[in-house]
Amino acid sequence: MYQVWTYPSPLGPIRLTMNEIGQLVSLVLEEGKLSDNSGPIAVEAASNGADFVYFTNYLQAYFEGDPPLLDPSRLAPLHSTPFRLKVWQELLSLPFGQLISYGELGRRVAPSSKHMAQEIGQAVGANPIPLIIPCHRVVGSKGQLTGYAGGIPLKKRLLTHEGISIAGDRVLERKKSE
To answer: How far apart are CA 11 and CA 72, in angstroms?
Structure first.
């Protein structure tokens, strides 16, 4: 049985869903109206947030501008495939305030393949744990803000919070991933 807890963030309520062994399986940001793509899983409301402290502490630190390193073994994203997990693992390696293009992400995930844009975009878009698996840090090759399930306004807000300068729907200054 999955447990659910709502964290009151500066972005509004964030619904966290955890499996029976304490791994986070999904995160839903209410402000961005990100759809809950968890599918038909049985959930019950947690009696208190004690089991979610690891994740609520992470989110608190994120909103204070200094998120700690995250233990990937604490995550078990719903609807994962080996390819998606590889993409999401790469996203987890991006530090706070650092961006990556879809093209660079594709080169890192599948260096021998030249045409990964669609697959990368689908994997990024299928991320069930946004914010923690930072899919909002993926931008177009020229810094354009594209493809965020929570909408471009929320993506702008998250990137601005991380110190990224934005004008319109384009990044003005960005730290390139190394």
So the answer is: 24
Question: How many degrees, rounded to 5, is the angle at CA 26 between CA 69 and CA 95?
Answer: 25
CA–CA gap between residue 151 and residue 173 (Å, rounded):
21
Q: Is the pLDDT of residue 99 over 50?
A: yes
Tell me which residues are annotated as active site: 135
Over residues 124-167, the pLDDT tens digits come to: 999 999 999 999 999 998 999 988 888 899 999 999 999 999 99
- Name residues whose C-beta falls within 8 Å of residue 13's C-beta, 6 or more positions apart in sequence: 6, 7, 30
Please name which of 149, 139, 53 lies closest in space to residue 94, comparing C-alpha atoms. 139
pLDDT, residue 9, reads: 94
